[in-house]
Specification:
Blueprint lengths: L3 E3 L14 E7 L6 H9 L7 E8 L4 H13 L4 E6 L4 H15 L5 E4 L5 E2 L3 H11 L5 E3 L2 E5 L2 E4 L6 H4 L10 E3 H5 L13 H11 L4 E3 L5 E5 L4 H7 L1 H11 L1 H4 L1 H11 L3 E5 L4 E5 L8 E4 H13 L9 E5 L1 H9 L3 H11 L5 E9 L3 E9 L9 E4 L3 H7 L18 E9 L13 H13 L15 E2 L29 E7 L6 H15 L2 E7 L4 E3 L2 H6 L2 E4 L14 E2 L2 E2 L2 H5 L3 H7 L4 E5 L5 H9 L3 E6 L3 E2 L5 E2 L1 H7 L6 E4 L2 H9 L22 H10 L7 E6 L8 H13 L4 E6 L13 H4 L2 E2 L5 H10 L2 E4 L8 H8 L3 E5 L15 E3 L4 H13 L2 H15 L4 H17 L7
Parallel strand pairs: 2-3, 2-5, 3-4, 7-11, 8-12, 9-21, 13-16, 17-20, 22-23, 22-28, 23-25, 28-29, 29-32, 33-34, 33-36, 34-35, 36-37, 37-38
Antiparallel strand pairs: 1-4, 5-10, 6-12, 7-10, 8-9, 13-14, 14-15, 16-19, 17-19, 18-20, 18-24, 26-27, 30-31
Helix pairs in contact: 15-16, 17-31, 24-27, 25-29, 28-30
């Protein structure tokens, strides 16, 4: 780069300077105002040398060059004049900084002064003293005292990188320690439209440096009606977008939550039983801060009189430590907090009641508590600003209604049902959260500190409004009503998203995938999209670290659709719906797997942009009434771009995905395996059961599954009736129940008498398969049924229709029987006749079926996906990149 460096002709006449500080002034079109800036530097009262570096960035005004030359010649020992072609503000600053650092090894810090601003005489002495006093500070930044358009803005208080992501709290006129530049942090020359200083300090913060404000800096900012800053504000969204791309982790939901936890905790948990207040975002994070009640109240009062400089968690939560523990046992702590915080958009208070229930389930319900409702709140969450409003009111009578009987204040009431087994013997339920809040409000209202609220305590205007709204900053990426309060820890977190959790095959695949991933060191989390309750047995509790209900009335897995993709409805919610809450629920994770979540596919593209790795689990294509393939597989094709990986349950389905246009690199078959482990002793019992079979023994045939059309239940009925009519020596067990809403199914009374209720425990399922010789499944369409694999593992011969990937595991008359879709009943009857009359054939097929399942387990099935996922996450930008 061409440059002109102006120095005196006779270097011997210039005193040797060893400056501790260099002031860099970039100049472009400020020729007249420049003299004020230079004079303010020359007038500094400091006991250390200061070198002034003037950088003419190709200014077209001849006057600029004349002023700079005149000053450089007049003060050769104090001023260096550099000229260069125009490269923009960032380039000019960098040019001056690099020259200063290379020329004077003694320089400890650089001060950036724009040519139209100026300094009070003690500014540099004050700033250097602060830098020396705080060795942990990377830079010292001022309050903004404006002249021209007069304004004084208070930017005091602890530096907050969290707040810095939403507003530029550090003026370019800051004193910057040399080590910041030595770390490679300079102004980004690609920023030419403004906010260069904002980007610079964010980059410095990502490199590990932090700023510090001082009240008496002495910086004076010239404010005019039209300026480069005004232009920047007009283009602010475009510039902010570039900053978000550059500082991706910092602006991500994960990054913001980490900062919120560290700098500005969201919740103040008032623990009545401990007389303590826990300040945190994530109650399970190890770095939460504990205050006594007295310390909490003192800090709270400080924010009421000087809330631009001090932070207090904006959301108060009245509860009991045992309540937090109960929610932890139920894996519901974070999900409940998130839902309650979202409900604060509707009312000032959100209350939680906990109800033990006998069933092995968890669930929730919601209503507005007012009038006839009597609150028994185990937890009360208070909207930001509510306590302050109560204290400032002349009377707290209205607020006492929250604890009245009945409740007199509009409140969102959540009722949570948790299994009785999660509660300790004799454990009493805490129900006094509302009463404890009223007591706190009354104490604050009666405090002698209340009189201070009538006064203003600073001549500057509080200019960091985000200080009292820090909980809203982590909402910015998703624009949701609340950011999910879970802070990323060491290790990996993966979400399992399902519309409901009962006993279906999809849920069993999800559970077993999660168990395998947990064994591999991952933390699985369960997200229930549409149901308000779910079965939650011990194996689910042991597998998942958390359970969260989306609790969004706007969401429907397969809601209204005004468009379709290859004949499959594309839910409107997935394209046009309010996806903010669902995105916030999942944005903090490392990865997400969608298990038949339907419309939730519409969120996956947003999650990918946040750095979350997304996967789609595929099991089967449904059939329309006209026998056309439709359903989740086709919806997956419609949103293929939004997924990093597609997980078909079989090789055959994987081939179909590739044939339908999904890139081969995205397809990671996650092959089904038996969904439960055999109980202790089962292998020995199976050996004994299969070893000998008398020719006089009846053939034991079992059906186990849903009683619906897909499973071919009407075919099953015909097969049972035909076998009975032929007097075959067959003993039947039909296990399952009808699907709700299936009005087309009519089961004859004599068949209904054979029905047994569904089996849900590994012990019950294993015992049923031990009993059977043959498992029959006359389905119209399937994926790769888990029950076939479970039957084969126990030596039960599968007899199934040629549907889905059944033939991927079954070989005709080798390890099972494959029935055609056209002659299912006749072929089944023929096969049953043959098996009933040939015990040796039964034993051979049984032994082969069992042998073929050895080594087929979920750890092996999931391992390729874990490897792929690990590889993808290693490529994700680190926090400092």
């Amino acid at each position: 780069m061409q440059q002109i460096l102006l120095r005196p002709q006779d270097a011997d006449t210039v005193p040797v300077q060893m400056p501790r500080l260099a002031v860099v002034v970039p100049i472009f079109r400020h020729s007249v105002l420049l003299a004020e800036a230079i004079e303010s530097v020359l007038a500094q009262r400091a006991d250390f040398p200061i070198q002034l570096v003037l950088v003419n960035d190709g200014c077209p005004h001849r006057e600029t060059d004349l002023v700079c030359r005149e000053y450089a010649l007049s003060y050769p020992d104090r001023i260096t004049y550099l000229r260069k072609p125009n490269g923009g503000l960032s380039d000019a600053r960098n040019h001056g900084i690099r020259h200063a650092l290379a020329t004077w090894a003694s320089v400890e810090a650089i001060y950036m002064l724009d040519a139209d601003n100026r300094l009070r005489p003690d500014a540099m002495a004050n700033a250097m003293a602060a830098l020396a006093q705080h060795p942990d500070a990377g830079w010292i930044y001022p309050n903004i005292d404006m002249f021209g358009l007069s304004w004084a803005g208070d930017y005091g208080g602890d530096y907050s990188l969290l707040i810095h992501t939403v507003m530029n709290i550090c003026e370019a006129g800051s004193l910057i320690r040399r080590e910041v530049f030595d770390a490679g942090v300079y102004f980004d020359t690609s920023f030419k439209s403004g906010f260069e200083d904002w980007d610079f300090f964010l980059t410095a913060a990502e490199a590990g440096f932090r700023g510090r404000n001082i009240d008496n800096f002495g910086f004076l900012y010239r404010k005019r009606a039209e300026s480069m800053l005004a232009d920047s504000e007009r283009d602010s969204e475009a510039i902010r977008s570039e900053m978000r791309k550059k500082h991706k982790h910092l602006f991500s939901p994960r990054g913001l939550l980490e900062l919120e936890q560290k700098e500005a905790p969201r919740y103040a948990f008032f623990l009545a039983d401990r007389h303590e207040v826990l300040l945190t975002v994530d109650p399970d994070a190890p770095d939460g801060r504990i205050l006594t009640v007295a310390e909490f109240e003192q800090q709270w009062w400080r924010t009421q009189t000087d809330n631009s400089q001090h932070h207090m968690p904006p959301i108060l939560v009245m509860t009991h430590s045992t309540v937090l523990e109960q929610l932890r046992r139920g894996r519901m702590l974070h999900g409940v907090l998130w839902t309650m915080e979202r409900r604060l958009t509707q009312h000032c208070f959100a209350a939680l009641e906990i109800e033990p229930c006998e069933a092995d389930r968890i669930g929730w319900s919601e209503q507005e508590a007012q009038g006839s409702t009597e609150l028994h709140a185990a937890m009360l969450m208070v909207r930001p600003g509510t306590l302050a409003a109560i204290v400032r009111d002349s009377s707290i009578a209205w607020a006492t209604g929250i604890a009245a009987r009945p409740c007199g204040v509009p409140t969102t009431l959540l009722r949570l049902q948790l299994p009785h087994s999660l509660f300790s013997a004799g454990e009493e339920l805490y129900t006094a959260a509302a009463h404890d809040f009223v007591a706190l409000a009354a104490r604050c209202h009666a405090s002698p500190n209340r009189g201070a609220l009538a006064y203003s305590w600073d001549w500057r205007n509080p200019d960091i409004p985000w200080r009292s709204r820090t909980h809203e900053i982590s909402r910015v990426p998703t624009k949701a009503d609340a950011a999910y309060p879970r802070v990323a820890k060491d290790g990996r977190d993966i979400g399992f998203v399902l519309p409901l959790v009962e006993f279906g095959g999809v849920e069993r695949v999800a559970l077993n995938t999660a168990r395998a991933m947990k064994r591999a060191g991952w933390r699985p989390h369960l997200f229930v999209l549409e149901a308000q309750s779910c079965q939650f047995s011990e194996e689910w509790r042991e597998t998942f670290d958390s359970v969260t209900f989306l609790a969004d009335a706007n969401f429907a897995t397969w809601g209204p659709a005004n468009s379709n993709y290859l004949g499959t409805d594309v839910p409107d919610w997935s394209r046009f719906g309010d996806q903010r809450q669902a995105a916030a629920m999942l944005a903090w994770l490392d990865a997400v797997i969608n298990f038949h979540g339907g419309a939730i596919s519409g969120v996956m593209g947003r999650l990918k942009r946040f750095g979350v790795k997304t996967a789609l689990s595929l099991h089967l294509s449904d059939q329309s009434p006209f026998k056309r393939l439709v359903g989740n597989t086709y919806l997956g094709l419609a949103f293929e771009h939004a997924y990093d990986a597609v997980l078909p349950c079989s090789e055959q389905l994987g081939d179909w995905c590739h044939g339908m246009g999904i890139p081969a690199d995205k397809i990671v078959p996650l092959l089904n395996a038996p969904s439960f482990d055999l109980p202790e002793g089962a292998e020995a019992r199976i050996d004994a059961r299969r070893a000998v079979r008398s020719p006089t023994d009846p053939l034991r045939v079992i059906y186990l599954g849903r009683l619906d059309h897909q499973k071919g239940v009407e075919r099953l009925i015909s097969i049972v009736e035909a076998a009975e009519a032929a007097r075959l020596p067959v003993e039947w067990r039909l296990i399952g129940k009808a699907v709700l809403g299936d009005s087309t199914l009519e089961i004859p009374p004599h068949i209904g008498a054979l029905l047994e209720p569904p089996l849900t425990t590994p012990e019950g399922l294993a015992a049923a398969f031990e009993w059977a010789d043959v498992f029959i499944l006359p389905s119209y369409y399937e994926g790769l049924p888990l029950t076939i694999l479970e039957a084969m593992r126990s030596g039960v011969i599968p007899m199934a229709t040629d549907a889905g990937a059944v033939t991927e595991v079954l070989r005709q008359w080798d390890n099972g029987i494959v029935l055609s879709q056209s002659e299912t009943i006749a072929e089944a009857l023929t096969a049953l006749t043959r098996l009933a009359g040939d015990p040796g054939l039964v034993q051979r097929l049984s032994a082969q079926a069992r042998a073929d399942m050895r080594g087929r387990d979920w750890d092996g099935a999931v391992e390729p996906f874990i490897s792929r996922l690990t590889e993808m996450l290693q490529k994700r930008p680190k926090a400092h990149e």
